[in-house]
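Page 37, continued from 36.
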């Protein structure tokens, strides 16, 4: 499957990355589309998608402006096409197309991309069909594509015709007419025909980024109405008669908000192949939604799913690993023991069994879901060094005034197990607390927690969990959530601290939600093996040595 013969050329991942880099250099010099075509045609024209890359990179500045306005000024994306246009690496499209073709009649099967852009998925389908013995004309005429972007649709038609010409064939008027009929400007959630196969890299956009009209349309997709890409996956189920191949954010297979959607998919379809691509696939794209997965859903079942773990490295590294690494076959039912049933394929069977073998953390420890939120950090949060004279001291941490208005603030921070990240202070005066209590975007934490020792951790951990001892008197917010012993037993806290900072706990937490955030619900659901006196001793020793306050511990 991975080494299927290619009769039509395309760029490798390393060539794509180099090409994009060269385009960006030219764009920075003020080149327009015509300039770029003239500059790169001789060098890159052997790849049918090369003009698609030009189009994407010319729009990169507008896309960045749209995201800047959205993230910093809460503006809705003005242009869905520009904001969500990230094209597919050719090797991923080829992998999906080749595998999808194995489930259908290679001669007669048709393929739809309901968000085709400049055509990368459709080109991969043509390559796969030609490799299976179809003529290039028949392969080209078997594709259907729709997209909202007229420029991308025009490039797609042009490139498909070019694939025929590359085989020294004539593109007749009849073929040209068919291409205009089969590749059209339309809304892929409404105007896409049924086909044997749906291949797509759908647009990614969360509900909060959409205008009211689009949000209402996406929500019509029920459990899939969480993101624009998941709405497209729901639509693809209805348009495909045999198989669906998708490149999308990995979140639909892992996070809680997609639990109902993934259970629905696995109930109605067989997950045949899963390429866990992680981050680094798309040049220059960062963030949670850059962590991707490519997967194939079929109507026929082989009993198990073929998993490829390609999370490490950049695009070219992932392509090389896909060509050489061994896949692992697992039954998706094995993951039902994990809360939310995420596809944590990297866990061993004995690690998955821990979720049913041991009690969840919340049975013995409290993890408050209501943390402090100022609603205006610029006004109420200060570096400790700036407000030391008005800072209330606590065990292990100095302050200048036991009656001061500021308290140490657990706000997460970088990876720092056991003790540390005490860099911030929050105004906790009566006036400030009144604001937190009444302002609609604020929240005042339950002050009874100030009387208890606890643990805190960094919410934004980047897949590296780190917990710390938190002495009584410290305020905690959403970025530095807290954990308390239900028995207020410090030994129990120190023992748990050792477990939370172990490789095993980190693996299990990442399995429940392999995003950049460690959610309170996942920490609550973490299975906890028996905590021992020796673990308590080790945890206490670590904290006391790092805090430098061993002699004063109560």
């Amino acid at each position: 499957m991975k080494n299927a013969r290619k009769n039509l050329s395309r760029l490798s991942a390393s060539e794509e990355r180099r090409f994009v880099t060269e385009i960006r250099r030219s764009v920075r010099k003020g080149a327009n589309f015509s300039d770029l075509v003239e500059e790169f045609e001789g060098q890159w024209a052997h790849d049918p998608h090369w003009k698609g890359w030009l189009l994407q990179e010319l729009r990169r500045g507008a896309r960045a402006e749209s995201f800047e306005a959205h993230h910093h000024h809460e503006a809705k994306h003005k242009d869905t096409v520009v904001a969500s246009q990230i094209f597919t690496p050719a090797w991923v499209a080829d992998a999906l197309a080749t595998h999808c073709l194995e489930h259908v009649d290679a001669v007669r099967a048709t393929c739809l991309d309901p968000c085709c852009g400049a055509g990368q998925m459709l080109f991969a389908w043509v390559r796969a069909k030609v490799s299976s013995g179809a003529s290039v004309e028949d392969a080209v005429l078997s594709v259907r594509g729709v997209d909202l972007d007229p420029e991308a649709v025009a490039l797609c038609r042009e490139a498909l015709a070019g694939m025929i010409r590359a085989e020294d064939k004539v593109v007749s008027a009849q073929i040209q007419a068919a291409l205009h009929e089969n590749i059209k400007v339309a809304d892929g959630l409404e105007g896409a025909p049924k086909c044997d196969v749906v291949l797509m890299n759908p647009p990614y956009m969360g509900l909060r980024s959409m205008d009211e009209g689009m949000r209402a349309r996406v929500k019509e997709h029920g459990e899939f109405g969480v993101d624009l890409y998941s709405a497209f996956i729901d639509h693809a189920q209805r348009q495909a008669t045999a198989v669906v191949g998708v490149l999308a954010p990995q979140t639909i297979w892992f996070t809680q908000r997609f639990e109902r959607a993934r259970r629905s998919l696995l109930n109605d379809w067989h997950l045949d192949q899963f390429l866990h691509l992680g981050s680094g696939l798309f040049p220059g794209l960062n963030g949670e939604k850059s962590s991707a997965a490519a997967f194939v859903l079929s109507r026929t079942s082989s009993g198990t799913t073929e998993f490829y773990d390609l999370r490490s490295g950049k695009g070219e590294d992932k392509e090389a690993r896909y060509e050489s690494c061994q896949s692992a076959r697992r039954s998706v039912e094995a993951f039902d023991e994990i809360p939310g049933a995420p596809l944590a394929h990297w866990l061993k069977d004995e690690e998955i069994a821990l979720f049913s073998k041991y009690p969840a953390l919340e049975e013995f420890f409290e993890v408050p879901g209501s943390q402090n939120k100022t609603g205006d950090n610029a006004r109420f949060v200060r570096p400790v060094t700036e407000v030391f004279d008005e800072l209330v001291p606590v065990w292990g941490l100095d302050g200048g005034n036991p009656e001061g208005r500021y308290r140490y603030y657990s706000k997460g921070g970088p990876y720092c197990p056991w003790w540390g990240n005490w860099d911030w202070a929050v105004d906790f005066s009566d006036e400030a607390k009144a604001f937190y209590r009444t302002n609609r975007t604020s929240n005042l934490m339950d002050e009874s927690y100030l009387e208890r020792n606890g643990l805190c951790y960094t919410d934004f951990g980047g897949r590296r969990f780190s917990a710390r001892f938190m002495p009584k008197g410290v305020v905690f917010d959403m970025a530095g959530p807290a954990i308390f012993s239900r028995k207020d037993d410090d030994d129990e806290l120190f023992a748990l601290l050792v477990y939370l900072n172990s490789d095993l706990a980190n693996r299990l937490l990442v399995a429940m939600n392999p995003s950049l955030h460690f959610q309170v619900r996942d920490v609550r659901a973490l299975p906890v093996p028996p905590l021992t006196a020796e673990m308590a001793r080790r945890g206490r020793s670590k904290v006391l040595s790092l805090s430098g306050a061993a002699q004063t511990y109560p």
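Residues 334 and 539 are 34 Å apart (CA to CA). Flag for discussion at group meeting. The radius of gyration is 27 Å.
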